[in-house]
Each structure stands twice: as C-alpha cells, then as structure tokens.
Amino acid sequence: MATPRFEHPSMAPVALLLPDLDCEGPGYWQSHWVASRIDCRAVDLGQARPDRNSLVSRLDHALRGIDAPLILVGHGIGALAIAAWAGLMSSESEIAVAGALLIGPSDAVADSADSRLQGFAPLPATVFSFPALVVASDDDPMVSADRAFSLARQWGAGFARVGACGHFLPADGLGWWPEGEELLDRFIDLVGPGRTASICNLDGFAPAVRRGGASLPPLFRPGP
Length: 224
Hints:
6-stranded parallel sheet; 6 helices
C-alpha cells in the first residue's frame, strides 16, 4: 500500500522560510511574512560563514516534528540549502514536503560569487521528488536569469521570471514584497492538501502580477 503523503492531509500547510546571507530585520520580506502570517516560520541558518552540511541539518531538524504539509521557501543561500537537502535526504524524509519555492538561488560557481558560497559548489543535480518553482529576477547580480533557468532544468522545477527585483534584498526596495506573498499563496493553493499537482502540471501555474503591475508570462517546466 502506498505511503500517505501526510499523516493529517487536511491540515493547513506550514511554510518554512530560509533566508539569504545577511538578511534579517523588519525590512526583509521573510521577516514580514513570519511576523504577519500564522502559516510562516523562520528557519535559523545560524552562521556568518555557512557550512552546507550544517544548513542541511538545520533544515532537516526544523521540518521534523511539524505534523503538517510543508512548503519550503528558500532565498539565495536558503534556496541552495533546500537543493542540497533534497539531494542528500531519503524519500522518507522528503515525504512531508508538499513543494518548494526557490527565490533567486545564488550561483555558487560564478566568478562573482560570494566567497561564503564556495562550500556549496558544485550545485546538486538531483531532480526533486516534490513540486518546485525557481523564481528569477531579470537583474539579479547573484544569478542570471539564464543560469536560474538552467538550475530549474537540472532540479526538475518550474521556472518564472518576475521582472527587475534585484536579488530580492531589502536594498532592492521590495519592502514586504506583496507580489511574492501572492505567489506563495497561489503556490500553496496549487500543491496543498487535497490537490493532485505534480511537478509536470506546474506548467499551468501563472501568478497574476509581477512587479510594476504587468502580467507574468505563463510558468513552465523546462523540457528534457
């Protein structure tokens, strides 16, 4: 008999938020979401010079004991931590994850990469066992849109470009980033309890707005 995806599939999903380097405080959209939403919880990644194995362990520890479907939301190095965790954990560990949003995953192998990302290279090439969406900015100095698309391809994830948002940092003027919060809500609605969404049918998912008010192009999953 197939293993049930969640012990209590009717429960509302919980979003675990993994921040980027040097991102904290009320000006950061993740901090705002945690403060204003009962379904969002922060994951403390803990280190000024992060170690990949330590971050994977912290994420694994954070998700254990939460008896609800989980949405992982990683920004920058937080997205890399999710990818590393997905590549190392067993399918039993991944069973509680309903989906993952990877916002501006930093390119650890780029010439301009922050030196603190060196321990994350090479990036894992494992296809995720859960639905995922890579979200890219048109002017992200940490990862080009083409590179973000390539990462989505190797992880078997959907891909969306959301206009000029920089690296999704407080300094980029996003504030609490309402468009990102809408994207989270729509993603939860797609992959949450009672849904039959798979990685493949992310093709039909398109957030309603992008920064500046223009509509987003349809989301698609890269082909083989």
